[in-house]
Amino acid sequence: MELTIDPKIAEQGVTLAYSVIEFTNEAYNKKIWQELVDPLLKQIETEDTIERIREEPRISATKKVYRTFGKDPARFRPSSESLWRRIVQQKGLYQINALVDLNNYFSLKWKLPFGVYDLAKITEPIQLTVGQAEHYAGIGNKSLNLENLLILTDKAGAFGSPTADSTRGMITEKTTKALLIGYQFASDSVIEQTEVKTILENYLSDCRVVEQGIS
Questions:
Q1: Per-residue confidence of the chain (215 residues) as pLDDT tens digits?
Q2: What does the alpha-carbon distance between residue 16 and residue 114 come to, in Å, rounded to a whole number?
Q3: CB atoms within 10 A of CB 122
């Protein structure tokens, strides 16, 4: 996987934990919700508060990087914080499809933004860089302002960010090969790639992790 980080972002300690997978997607996977998602949501609803979110080191580290590049993390929240706040506020979690549901689970588990992209819709090389004065159609959003935001780009332009991904690379039930990325913003923000691999292969149908790495 040709996945690189703009040097000025790498200087801030940002890394990407990625997995390339081949699988059969499903509209709904009962086992994912019963064994992984629902127990985690119940734990968060019972134990966590908005104040705890504010004090979480991984959330703070993520927002610090946003500010470094001139993006207000209060207006453009990292997806991990947005998801966590939603659960704490008893608003529940949208069920999308098996892979996207796991992606959200990983984000809530590690308190870090995760993104997942259909490899039939994006091309290598891929780079994490800082956005210019442009927009894209975000999933669940009318338009996302990419200026000063960390973004993933390919030859066709931006398709993802730790705030919200574009519709161009979005996962559907027809997706068979995907790139899963965990955005790490601090030295202690270590995503356990072995655990990610085990969960992906145990819970997605016909899943094989083709490649994993840290960029």
A1: 999 999 999 999 999 999 999 999 999 999 999 999 999 999 999 999 999 999 999 999 999 999 999 999 989 999 999 999 999 999 999 999 999 999 999 999 999 999 999 999 999 999 999 999 899 988 876 789 999 999 999 999 999 999 999 999 999 999 999 999 999 997 666 899 999 999 999 999 999 999 999 99
A2: 10
A3: 20
The identity of residue 64, as a single letter, is: K
Query: Which amino acid is residue 30, in one-letter code?
Result: K
Q: Residue 146: CA atoms inside 13 Å, Cβ hemisphere, count? A: 24
What one-character-per-residue DSSP string does 68-119 give? HTT--TTTS--HHHHHHHHHHTT-------HHHHHHHHHHHHHTS-EEEEET
Tokens of 168: 């161009």
C-alpha–C-alpha distance, residues 164 and 116, integer Å: 11
- Cβ(133)–Cβ(193) under 8 Å? no
Region for residue 188 given its phi and psi (left: phi exceeds 0; alpha: psi -120 to 50; beta: otherwise): alpha
Q: Containing H/E element for 39?
A: helix 38-47
> What 3-state class would DSSP assign to 12?
coil
Q: CB of 207 within 8 A of CB of 23?
A: yes
What is d(CA 206, CA 80) in angstroms, rounded to the nearest whole number? 28
